[in-house]
Amino acid sequence: MDEDGPRSLCGPCEDEDGPPSLSGLCVECVCRNLQALCSVRSDGSLQLSSCPAFPQELSDLLIHTMVQQGVLDDRTLGVFRGTECLHLKRVSIRSCRLSADAFRKALCSHRLKELDASRLRGDITVSDILQGLSSNQQCRQSLQRLTLTGLDLLSSSSDPSLSFSSLRALRSLGVAWTQLDDSGLEDICSLPMLDSLDISGTAVTDLTPLLNLKTHLYSLTAHGLHPLDMSTASLLSILSNLEQLRHLDISNDRLDTDSEIPAVVLQLLERPQILPALESLDVSGWSGVSDAVLKPFLEARRGMRFLGLLATGAGASDFLSGEGNLKVAGEFNLTQLCEALRRYREREVLLQRALLHLHNLTNQLDIGSQPDVLKLVCAGMQTHSGSVGVQLVSTACVFNLTNLELAVSMPLRLLGNVVQQLITTMKNFPNHEQIQKNCLLALCSDHILQTVPFNRYEAAKQVMTCLSLYEDQTLQRMSVAVVSLLVSKLSVEEIGHLGAEEFIIKQLLSIVQQRASVGAVDSTLKFALSALWNLTDETPKACRIFLQNQGLELYTELLENNMAEVEDLREWLMEEDLLKYILALLHSPVVEVGVSYFAGGVLANLTSSRRPEWRLDAELRNTILNKLHSSVISWTPPDHEMVSYRSFQPFYPLLDCSQPSGVQLWALWGIQLVVRQSVSDYSTLLENEGGLHKLRDLISDPSIHTDVHSLALNILCLVETQQNCS
Is Endoplasmic reticulum tagged as a keyword (predicted)? Predict the structure, then answer.
């Protein structure tokens, strides 16, 4: 309602690049520990047990932080009862759930200067707030700014005699989207100091009472007055008589049904004698405004500082660019769009339109890193957290603004706020697939997932919830990738809690089963395996769920396929967490030798001297090779048939003299295993493929390990004995 747009009543403006303020950190600590710092009154409300007198600014910051953290309610509001310790001056309790009784007891004893009680939830009404504020003489004399947007005027128990007139010090009043009628407007217009008024979306039909404010009304916001029943001439006459008016908002939110420019707007633009001192005019949403009409309008009003032109068709000319002293909310360049995002944060339809144009702009142009724009988008998401239209287009904008390297130069705290909002959006719209995809696209960034501060536990759980609801391959791939990285950053305690969620383990196992069943060794499989490794690492409950859901059998099947034998797929398996998990299966005393053997096959292929080259920590490779060697020589072949082979071709490269002993041993153990099961069949196979020659070369190499020599010799003896018998 002010010429500069919506204003926050309180709360610190901190540099997002720098550290948080000490006062902010202290107040956040108080909010987190209210239970410990308070005792409980008989009515259940809290009171601080021992509290020094807070400076007024800190008191305002405390209630602001409680609102921001979502902890302000009837119970916690009790800490502000009385004024001995906490002195409030500027208060915003917007969108909180409060009762009229709690409001009266806690806030009406303070000498308030500003109060924003917009869109309160609960049984509280405009009448309740007025009665409470009027009950304190000091407050009646001090309150200068009051915003009551979106509240009911009366309840069944309210005093029907609604009156603003006792608040004689009021200078700014917002009653938009209430049931305010003509009698209410007349009451308001009796306030002697009122200079700023927002009556948008009310039931007012006649603006004549505004003439009582003609000597001091500076700002009038009056969009959405659909019941208004006045002729164009009457309206223009009233506006012409508001001699001090500098800001006028007569914009339109009905873009799809009623956007044709009305005569009053057109005549206002065409008549230079009406409101010649005007500095700010908002006509956004009225189609048919043209740059040609605006040029003489501006020439007659050299003091203009703002024009609202979004969704009007105007604004393409250089003199409307918004780059100079004249700010323009429009859609033709980034400057105009930023002004629109800032001005229309509270107005869903116009905000959504601005976001749509921003999305189109960022799709077409490289605008570089724009943290200020991202901050505006996030603010709109927070304000309209329940609007599917706003969330759909804003999440797409977030992706465009943080994609690739753009996020790296953004302030970490800003990115943290954005990520938390993305998580909230995913939670609010679990059944909207495109919103889920947009959020995951924005989250799929190593920089964001590894560096930015946010609640990774909450994020991982929310992404897993998304994964459980959709079968779309793209969405699955993104979800598993995000979860894998998030889980690797969690504390032991958080991993324990997450791993205890059965649906999470089952869903990841389902992904592994799905990818394995079609032979797909891709990033989805790799990330799912990595996430399972982290979730089951030293977490007994997760391990129990893993075993109860046939996780071990699935891993055995996966290892039997030995995907590491396929050269093109080895790169996908070169993941440290995954290799550590497979290494645990290699030498675990609680798994069967078959599982250990198949795990050894993956490790042997990845640590061999074949491509791709080892690109992880060299110490990890040495550990794997040492444990592979010691494990193989400790294995006892099972009595039953464990595996069969149509060819030994994948084994021969592992028998090269240049290979590490652990790799050679694994290959020899596998050959010996099946040769013992069917000497005649596999002897022929070895001879036909040149395997016997490979074994003889290996034995003749004086540099090979004695364990390798013994095992190779043993296989040759088995084969030669069979040949002699034949």
Answer: no
Residue 58 and residue 82 in contact, taking contact as beta carbons nearer than 8 Å: no
Determine the Cα–Cα distance for residues 545 and 631; give it in Å rounded to an integer. 27
The number of C-alpha atoms within 13 Å of 662 and in the hemisphere containing its C-beta is 24
| DSSP run (H or E) holding 397 | helix 388-402
How far is the C-alpha of 726 from the C-alpha of 712, rounded, in Å? 21
DSSP state of 705: -
Rounded CA gap, 121 and 98, in Å?
6
**pLDDT, tens digit (0-9, with 9 covering 90-100), for 71-119:** 999 999 999 998 888 999 999 999 999 999 999 999 999 999 999 999 9
Structure tokens, 421: 């909002």
Closest to 397 measured CA to CA, from 427, 429, 342, 435: 435
Interior CA angle at 254 toward 249 and 255, to 5°? 100
Q: What is the DSSP letter of 55?
A: P
Alpha-carbon span 139 to 136, nearest angstrom: 5
CA distance 505 to 292: 64
* Residues 338-361: tens digit of each pLDDT: 999 999 999 999 999 999 999 999
Two tokens, residue 682: 């596999």
Total Cβ atoms within 10 A of residue 208: 14
CA distance 265 to 279: 16
What is the H or E stretch that residue 129 is in?
helix 126-134
